[in-house]
């Protein structure tokens, strides 16, 4: 046990020097979220070339922190790290158990988080396959998800729809409703937490993020989640100055 830990320590020290997962800001952030297993996971991802450098936090949320990183080819990546301490395991368990893709009946917290992260990656992949603009998933490992960084060429992350000034609200709203529709009809998925807080605006285009809780349409709560997504979008569209009713939204998505 002892030698295992010291080997991990050595490996981590190597990562910190070789791969430059260092810098004042990262150390500060590190003391907040990087427990040993997370560091080991980051180390493995670094060895695989997915993370060469972490450049500080884009967001520090309830359950996860998102960092901007750079991979071995010099591309920006977004690194989402779930914190084992503050994750809502009851929710994770409930969503995972009703999902036919995951045969996981566990109350082990780490295992639940790992499945949750895999679920986010698979939902992103599915969404991307049917033509929904989402961050391209790169790899999920334990509690860490690496994905395409959404932002400009010099590394400024895209803004949330809720916080940006939208130049063509009608275009953006129609695009989002089209995405909800193809997600439902073609990918058989409901996002489940869709709102202006989980949509980024990149060059005027909406990009759907944070799809870990997304469920298949035959999940017992999919209808309830879809209704909630529609309610949220209705509120956001109104805030954006659009005159659209809930019924119009529903009919744009499908005949419900
Ligand atoms: N691929 C990405 N590229 C750029 N920024 C991103 C990306 N993914 C997430 N972000 C930023 O990080 C924030 C949090 O990401 P996300 O919504 O996926 O996590 P979260 O689950 O909402 O976190 P929490 O619920 O704990 O607050 C987003 O609001 C966005 O600003
Ligand atoms: Mg979010």
Automatic annotation (TrEMBL):
E.C. designation(s): 2.7.11.1
Location of the Protein kinase domain: 52-256
Domain of life assignment: Archaea
Alphabetized SMART domains for the sequence: RIO
SUPFAM superfamilies: Protein kinase-like (PK-like)
Keyword Calcium applies: no
Coiled-coil segments on the chain, per record: none
Signal peptide residues on this chain, from the entry's feature table: none
Catalytic activity: L-seryl-[protein] + ATP = O-phospho-L-seryl-[protein] + ADP + H(+); L-threonyl-[protein] + ATP = O-phospho-L-threonyl-[protein] + ADP + H(+)
One MF term in the entry's GO annotations: protein serine/threonine kinase activity
InterPro entries reported for this sequence: Kinase-like_dom_sf, Prot_kinase_dom, RIO-type_Ser/Thr_kinase, RIO_dom, RIO_kinase, Tyr_kinase_AS
Keywords: ATP-binding, Kinase, Magnesium, Metal-binding, Nucleotide-binding, Serine/threonine-protein kinase, Transferase
PANTHER family, per database record: SERINE/THREONINE-PROTEIN KINASE RIO1 (PTHR45723)
Family: Belongs to the protein kinase superfamily. RIO-type Ser/Thr kinase family.
Protein name: non-specific serine/threonine protein kinase
Organism: Methanobacterium spitsbergense
């Amino acid at each position: 046990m002892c030698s295992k830990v010291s080997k991990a320590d050595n490996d981590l020290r190597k990562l910190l020097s070789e791969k430059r997962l260092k810098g004042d800001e990262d150390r500060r952030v590190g003391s907040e979220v990087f427990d040993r297993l997370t560091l080991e996971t980051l180390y493995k991802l670094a060895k695989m070339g997915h993370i060469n450098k972490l450049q500080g936090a884009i967001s520090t949320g309830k359950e996860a922190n998102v960092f901007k990183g750079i991979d071995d080819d010099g591309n920006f990546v977004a690194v989402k790290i779930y914190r084992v301490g503050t994750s809502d395991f009851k929710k994770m368990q409930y969503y995972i158990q009703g999902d036919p893709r995951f045969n996981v009946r566990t109350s082990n917290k780490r295992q639940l988080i790992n499945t949750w992260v895999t679920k986010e990656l698979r939902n992103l992949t599915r969404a991307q396959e049917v033509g929904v603009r989402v961050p391209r998933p790169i790899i999920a490992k334990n509690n860490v998800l690496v994905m395409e960084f959404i932002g400009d060429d010099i590394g400024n992350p895209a803004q949330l729809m809720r916080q940006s000034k939208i130049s063509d609200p009608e275009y953006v709203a129609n695009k989002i409703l089209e995405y909800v529709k193809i997600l439902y009809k073609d990918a058989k998925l409901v996002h489940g937490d869709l709102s202006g807080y989980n949509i980024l605006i990149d060059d005027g285009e909406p990009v759907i993020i944070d799809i870990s809780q997304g469920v298949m349409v035959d999940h017992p709560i999919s209808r309830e989640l879809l209704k909630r997504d529609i309610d949220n979008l209705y509120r956001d569209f109104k805030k954006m100055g659009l005159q659209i009713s809930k019924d119009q939204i529903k009919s744009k998505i499908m005949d419900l």
